[in-house]
Amino acid sequence: xxxxxxxxxxxxxxxxRSASHDRVLDGRAAGTxxxxxxxxxxxxxxxKVLWKVSDLVKYASDASPYRFVPQxxxxxxxxxxISAILSYAHGKGREVVFRAAGTSLNGQAQGEDILVxxxxxxxxxxxxxxxxxxxxxxxxxxxxxxxxxxxxxRLLGPDPASAIACTIGGVVANNASGxxxxxxxxxxxxxxxxTFVLPSGTVVDTADPxxxxxxxxxxxxxCEGLLALKAEIEADAELTARIRAKYEIKxxxxxxxxxxxxxxxxxxxxxxxxxxxxxxxxxxSEVVFDTLPLDRKVSSALLFFPSLTAAASxxxxxxxxxxxxxxxxxxxxxxxxxxxxxVPADWAELPKATAALLVEFRAPDEPxxxxxxxxxxxxxxxxxxxxxxxxxxxxxxxxTKAISxxxxxxxxxxxxxxxxxxxGTTLITEDFAVPPAQLADACESLLxxxxxxxxxxxxxxxxxxxxxxxxxxxxxxxxxxVDRYAAFMDDFCRLTVERFDGSLKAEHAxxxxxAPFLELExxxxxxxxxxxxxxxxxxxxxxxxxxxxxxxxxxxxxGLKTIPEVELIADPCIECGFCEPTCPSEDLTTxxxxxxxxxxxxxxQPNGSPVETALLDAYGYDxxxxxxxxxxxxxxCPVGIDTGAMMKDFRHQRHSPREERIAALTAKNxxxxxxxxxLAVAAADRIGDRLLETVTGLARKAVRPDLVPEWLPEIPGAxxxxxxxxxxxxxxxxxxxxxxNRIFGGPDGHRGxxxxxxxxxxxxxxxxxxxxxxxxxxxxxxxxxxSKGYDEGNAVMANRIVEAAWGWTAxxxxxxxxxxxxxxxxxxxxxxxxxTEENRELHRELTVVDSLVxxxxxxxxxxxxxxxxxxxxxxxTCSMQHLGDVDxxxxxxxxxxxxxxxxxxxxxxAFAGDRGMLHKELTxxxxxxxxxxxxxxxxxxxxxxxxxxEIGMDRATGRxxxxxxxxxxxxxxx
Length: 974
What we know:
It is a single chain. By secondary structure, this protein is an alpha/beta fold. A hairpin with a 5-residue loop joins strand 8 (191-197) and strand 9 (203-205).
């Protein structure tokens, strides 16, 4: 064992705990039992079988209120693996559940036996017919697919609020719709063809002209059974009329019985049935969508009303005016959304009765937009609008930032409202639909029902389609609370069905929590047809039992998860999963949601239990060490949970007092450390990569892999010992070259000025000269210590840089321009909690400007572009995302290149200072998709604005990245 290996005990929860009733039992501490583990390992290979108890726990939770711990998790790579898994399950009498993003709200992505992860290895999109269609793999997120389609002026019909995270497979399997899809743009209506694997292992491509012939040969009984059910339904005029009527409004409860009416052959029937089948009929391996036009002329308004009833009454008028979206939010939703960045703070003061409609019109051109705006204005004239707080305007706008803010608040309904629930409570998200004309009545009835059962109201929804969403928070550890929830559900389901003839699930699919009420809505005849359909397609009941169909009247009360309190920063998490696609370690170890899920399981365990010990043993590497600490999870999380910050705090907890002292000593003597590092890098050029890799590898084994960086061949040579000479007199800004740019030089193949020389030169050309202080050596943005959780060293350097910057800038009179985005973020924001009160005052007087903003906003207007490169690909860093200056990166690049491309799969490279040298597997995993996209063609320039991220991308792609400021210098050089 390495000398300084941290002990897992350091992260053992210290709070007094009693065993939770839903904890993982001691007998499961060893993970997947034999022979299951051994048999699947032999079948698929060890890399495709996740068996540790930490693996099982992190897959046990999803965005729903349920929690079921699987026996094993498998990660198939192709259809052959899927067929092998299904064949194994048939032969052994086991059950299989498919899981992709885990954003489903009703437990349909959870299983108690074999859970199949189809998020990994199942991504990709092929654009067909110039964008008219798209072939998409099931692990691809909706947002990722639409990013590609946007280049063709197209988009997908389904647009769920979870588009950032939910995947195509889940969207189709649940027939998810969203804000604008309604009943005409959802998956059922816009899927052109599917390729899927039936429970028997038979693969069906519905686009194949010979598909029915092939299916009849492979599955004759299945074909006969489907045609018999079709004939039976069509012979019953009353049932046929009932089925058609049920889909006049949004409905995802049960199976799509209209597939028997819409399809004339077994394959056509199956194509319809697979949509909304929730993984109970087969695995969808590929989807071909008919795409829709992306109308770019958008006008939106957030209109405030004195009550829900008043807002609901206005919906039909906007529908008639042609609005593509009319979204409803009640007062509780509006007030809770202030936790979302960008939402006006004064919404917290809105009266409880207030409600709002987010109304949007989209047109292909200016005349169409103007016509819609006139129609909207006419409708608004007759409305009873209110403006209870100063930020409310009740006006339509075309301004992109304002519209984006409206939608961000609306889409955060579940997480923002759920995040503000009482600590320790479970969140239930329900959605239902009524005929749009009855929306106001349904709102009033729902609010009364919630009050009767002691629940706070929180209502939002797709009002244009009569589709409402509401949340219920209760403590699943308290039987009385569970009883209250059960009583509410009984009354709610009867109300929806008996009073409004509505849909108990409009777009979230049946799942586990509405399965017991399926017959209430559909009646015994239609429900029995659904059971028979399941028997025809999956006669052995291998796929997803107890999802969609369950005869247990209390099935929705089984498996409700407790939410034990954890660290304050993570406690609001409702496990929605929005954070996961942004996480650099997503495909390597754990995601932010899983880090929190694992922590919660520790809190369910009694102190010292075998399960807790096993979780702690895995947590150090899987959660703490392989967290890049980039905090992009905070940007994706609607309530701003920063799991990266929590991991940094855990790193701090694992440090010994001796390690903290050494780190602080390094900060105090950083001038000598910096000089030594530059000399070491210079010496490395003479020593050679192979020897350095060997030496650092041995040191990592002896000391600790998380402390000693590994030498990488991509590490560039040393920077010049001296910085460019500049003058303080006449300077427009103070230029602070980051320590990384004082230690490392540019790419080995670069011919031209260094980054500091380029910034000085290009600023002078623009008539805005910069000054580099003579005493920058020995200062740093403090990120080195901050990222590793060395609090004392962090405080030393944070205070030093702020004091120095205040002096350099004459008390903030000049801006401080920083040439590495992560360092800009560090000085501008991350140092603040570690400053003394006096230095916080100094910090408030500073203007810290990223070099990208300096170049785009201050220099470009004054520069003459003399030459351009042909094409450039950009790597926007995570720090740029936090700072909001990705647009400036693009603006500078577009001044320097004829063609500029930001990869659709661009994300955090996870190099994270030196973390890519501590855990190179992290950067390799984080950059794999972006690197593949970059290397799919040649570019003339590979640009970013952070030296360590550039090194990470060099390693990932085999190309040489450099700062866009260096490219700007070349483009403007006389």
